[in-house]
Amino acid sequence: MALTQEIRDGISEILREWGNERAENAKQILRDKNAVASSVLLQAIKNFDVEIKNGTIVIPFGFEYDEESDVSKYWMFVDEGVQGIGGGRKSAITTGRFKYKDNGKWIPAKPIQRWITEKGITPPADFMPKVKLLKRVEGWSYVLARSIKKTGIGKTMFWSDTFNEKAYKDLADRIAKKIGGEYTIQLKGI
Questions:
Q1: Angle, vertex CA 111, rays to CA 80 and CA 31, nearest 5
Q2: How many CA atoms lie within 13 A of 65 on its CB side?
Q3: Half-sphere exposure of 117 (CA within 13 A, CB side)
Q4: Which residues are CB-neighbours of 79 under 8 A, at least 6 positions away?
Q5: Alpha-carbon span 175 to 15, nearest angstrom
Q6: pLDDT per residue over 39-57, tens digit each?
Q7: Parallel, antiparallel or unpaired: strands 56-58 and 152-153
Q8: Residues 70, 71, 73, 74: is their CA dihedral positive or negative?
Q9: C-alpha distances in angstroms, 23 versus 120, 127, 151?
Q10: Which of 31, 24, 73 is nearest to 45 (CA)?
Q11: How far is CA 19 from the centre of its chain?
Q12: Any idea what the Cα angle at residue 140 is, between residues 137 and 145, rounded to 5°?
């Protein structure tokens, strides 16, 4: 069956709606989990316009590239979590796929410092009490970085719970309903 303009428009409309719903769902999970990296990820999650190329309907969604905070390098750690090296008060719940190495190096404190500043978090009053706030935030970010490496990062599943078999089946059902019939949907490069 050839893709008429009417069918293409119908599928494009469904893909646009579905993509926007998926992007909003991923963002809401991050908001609910209050993940450290959530502000950067929230801004990076994008749903782009539907395109039709050589008879193929394409909806690019994912992360918008930003050289400074290239989320393509770390989104999966926020999604599935990272096991700590131990020695902290508790252990974060993760999928177990990613683990910090006990190599004597600590995780970078700068992103945590930005997060503290963005969220308006003030270090505890008894932490470096005679030091100016800027230096206290910097010091507190190092304390948090050490703690995170020990306890790990808890999973958010913001991506895994958004783009899964149930979501893809919903998309296929919507398209089948719109154009009348059963169709196989092939998703590439997510």
A1: 50
A2: 2
A3: 13
A4: 155, 156, 157, 158, 159, 160
A5: 8
A6: 778 888 887 777 767 667 7
A7: unpaired
A8: positive
A9: 26, 39, 29
A10: 24
A11: 15
A12: 125
**pLDDT tens sequence across 107-123:** 888 888 888 888 888 89
Give me the amino acid identity at 24.
E
Both structure tokens of 167: 């979501």
pLDDT bucket at 190, cuts 50 / 70 / 90: very low
Q: CA-CA distance, 137 to 100, in Å (whole number)?
A: 24
Residue 66 neighbours by CB under 8 Å, 6+ apart: 40, 43, 44
Q: Are 168 and 187 in contact (CB under 8 A)?
A: yes
Q: What is the pLDDT of residues 89-102, one digit of tens each?
A: 788 899 989 999 99
Q: In which residue are the tokens 């020990």 written?
A: 150
